[in-house]
Every structure is written in C-alpha cells, then in structure tokens.
Amino acid sequence: MKKNKFLLVVLGILIFLAAANLVMGQEKKEEADDKEDDYTKYDYKFVGESEHWEGEYYLEGEVVWYEDDEYKMQRQYWYEDAGQIRYKGELTELDSLKKIQIEVGSTTSTMTFDEEEGPGREIFTFGNQVDDVIDYPEEPMQVQVTWDGETEVIKLVREDIE
User: Fold this and answer.
1) Strands 107-112, 123-126: parallel, antiparallel or unpaired by DSSP?
2) Closest Cα partner for 132 from 38, 59, 49?
3) Distance of alpha carbon 126 from its chain centroid, rounded?
4) Whole-structure pTM value
5) Which of 71, 147, 155, 160 sits most deeply, having the most CB atoms within 10 A of its CB?
6) Which residues of 60-76 are buried (b: 16+ CB within 10 A; e: fewer)?
7) Is residue 143 a contact partner of residue 127, using CB atoms and an 8 Å limit?
C-alpha cells in the first residue's frame, strides 16, 4: 500500500513536470515569435522635383523593438541614408551662388562658396532623416532649398507609394 502511494506521488510529480515543461516551451516559442515580429527591415527611395531642383533620398536599415528593464518599449536601429538635390539648370547659372541652405524636417544644412568661383557643382547632399522616415514611412518628405534669395520646396514621395 505504501509502495503504491509512493509510485502514485512519483508518477504525479513526473506528469506535473512534463506539463510544466510543455507550457514553458510554448511560452519560449511565443517569445521567439514575438521577437521576430519586433524586427523590421527598411529599404526606401524617395523622389521628387520642383521648378529648379530634383531630389532623391535613400534609406536602408533595420529596427529592433524591445522592452527595457522598466517595461518601456525601446528601439535600436542600424541604417545608411543619403539624400541629394540636383540643380536642373545649367551649371554656369550657379557661378554666382554664395550660399545654399537645405532644410529637411528639423535639420538644416548650410553651405557657403567662394564669391568668385561659386560651388562648381550642381549636386548637393543631405541626410540623417531616419527618425522621420521610420516613424512615418508613408509620408512625403519636404525639402526646402534656399539659394540666392529664392526658395523652393521639393516634395519627395516614396517610390513604391507613388
């Protein structure tokens, strides 16, 4: 009789451990599935033009969302981005250009040039718009270009959304 009770207790413990192991295994699988859902890869190209300018912006990167020790959602990302605008007119039209300012979101780039030579180029670069693009990837980007007292806005639209 004591032997039967002992076997029943051992068998009950084994069944309990097996069930607990199954539940824990399922939770770990769900956690792994959740982690896969928290990973996003980006590969975007935005294009647009205004009367005097053409613009492009590229973003390639990855974002991983995770919960920190205080149970707040955080993100880590890796990215490469590049943006450029190109003057559509003749390069000689920029010979007297002394300054150009490119404003995208909260970032402003200002370039000044030698008064006698001008920029000597028709392509100007900008970058680091990753937060705006990751947070609002469907939204067009507004690039404001100011040069020699003129201002134009280039609306860059994601190519796969146009």
Assistant:
1) unpaired
2) 59
3) 15
4) 0.69
5) 147
6) ebebeeeeeeeeeeeee
7) no
φ, ψ at 13 (rounded to 5°): -65, -45
The tens-digit pLDDT sequence of the chain (162 residues) is: 666 676 666 666 767 767 766 666 655 545 544 554 588 888 999 999 999 999 999 989 898 988 888 888 888 888 888 999 999 999 989 988 999 999 998 888 899 988 777 888 999 998 776 677 777 888 899 999 999 889 999 999 999 865
> What is the full DSSP assignment across the chain?
-HHHHHHHHHHHHHHHHHHHHHHHHHHHHHHHHHHHHTEEEEEEEEEEE-SSEEEEEEEEEEEEEEE-TTS-EEEEEEEEEEEEEEE-S-GGGGTT--EEEEEETTEEEEEE--TTT--S-SEEEE---HHHHHH-TTSPEEEEEEETTEEEEEEEEETTT-
Tokens read off for 148: 């020699």
Tell me the C-alpha distance between 44 and 162, whole Å.
12
